[in-house]
Amino acid sequence: MNKTISATDVRINFAQVMNEVMYGKDTYIVSRSGKPAIALIPIERLEELEQQREQRTAVLGQIYAQSATSPLAQLDVAEDTLTGLIENLVDDARSASGQ
């Protein structure tokens, strides 16, 4: 569950917030001057996110390696255009999976 808390309140209630994140698996968005500044998430969630990033990086590496040998590599498309398209596909996949 996402909760929002001010930086001042998180300083005052740090032990409680930490327990809710650790044991209740809550996620806190800490705001400063009314704007989101950081997120406090359980370590397990961070590890999941890091693992997902590594998997996506590996997949993108495979796609890139295959693209160099594919007939599509003969097309005259700028690398930054292809990178943008791949990033859009990854963003779409994340949105579809709720991440």
Mind explaining what this structure looks like?
Helices cover 62% and strands 17% of the residues. By secondary structure, the protein is an alpha+beta fold. It folds into 2 domains: 2-41, YefM-like fold, CATH 3.40.1620.10; 44-97, no CATH class. The chain starts with a strand and ends with a helix. A hairpin with a 2-residue loop joins strand 2 (27-32) and strand 3. The protein has a 3-stranded mixed beta sheet with strand order 1-2-3. The model has no long low-confidence stretch (mean pLDDT 87). The protein contains 4 helices and 3 strands; from the N terminus they run E-H-H-E-E-H-H.
- Computed Rg: 20 Å
Strand order of the largest sheet: 1-2-3
Shape: elongated
Number of H/I helices:
4
Counted up, domains total 2
Alpha-beta content class? alpha+beta
Helix-strand string = EHHEEHH
Low-confidence segments, given as residue ranges, are none
Task: Count the E strands.
Answer: 3
Fraction in helix: 55-70%
The averaged pLDDT comes out at 87
Report strand %.
15-25%
Oligomer: single chain
List the helices and strands and how they pair.
Blueprint: E1 2-6, H1 7-12, H2 14-22, E2 27-32, E3 35-40, H3 43-69, H4 79-97
Parallel strand pairs: 1-2
Antiparallel strand pairs: 2-3
Brief account:
With 99 residues, this protein is α+β, with helices and mostly antiparallel strands. Helices cover 62% and strands 17% of the residues. It has two domains: 2-41, 3-Layer(aba) Sandwich (YefM-like fold), CATH 3.40.1620.10; 44-97, no CATH class.
